[in-house]
Design brief:
Layout: H1 2-26, H2 40-45, H3 51-57, H4 62-88, E1 102-103, E2 107-108, H5 112-131
Antiparallel strand pairs: 1-2
Helix pairs in contact: 4-5
Length: 138
């Protein structure tokens, strides 16, 4: 479990770096500047605790599973952002004023399609890691 926590944390960081780098290109920055926060590593690592949920919904159609992931990811994003905000004074993300779809600056409902896809990508990562049982020995 510890090894998969680390792997999920690293995968999340990598995806966030790629995402924010592409965002900077979209905004006209050819340097492809990207950023993440140290806080994000344990948040992404928490995906290890979603593995039992994936196992429970595995037989559902992909579109139903995607719809399950959206509120789950919103709940994680909202709660972890709120906790970090209490500890540090602000969360690593602040959606305040960025969209009429934001809630308390912690989630944006218009990001549902992204979380739908992210949940399905997580499933693929989980299945890949499960094939390598040696990872569970650490």
């Amino acid at each position: 479990m510890k090894t998969r926590f680390i792997i999920y944390g690293l995968m999340g960081w990598i995806l966030e770096i790629i995402w924010t780098g592409l965002e900077s290109l979209y905004e006209g920055d050819p340097r492809l500047t990207a950023q993440t926060y140290l806080w994000m590593f344990p948040i992404y690592g928490l995906a290890v605790f979603l593995e039992p949920l994936h196992d429970a919904i595995r037989k559902l159609p992909w579109y139903v599973r995607g719809l399950v992931w959206v509120p789950v990811i919103f709940a994680i994003e909202y709660s972890t952002g709120g906790i970090i905000r209490k500890i540090a004074g602000s969360s690593p993300w602040n959606y305040s004023g960025t969209s009429s779809w934001e809630i308390h600056g912690l989630i944006r409902l218009d990001m549902a399609p992204l979380w739908f896809i992210t949940g399905l990508i997580f499933e693929q990562a989980h299945d890949f890691l499960t094939r390598y049982k040696k990872l569970e020995d650490y």
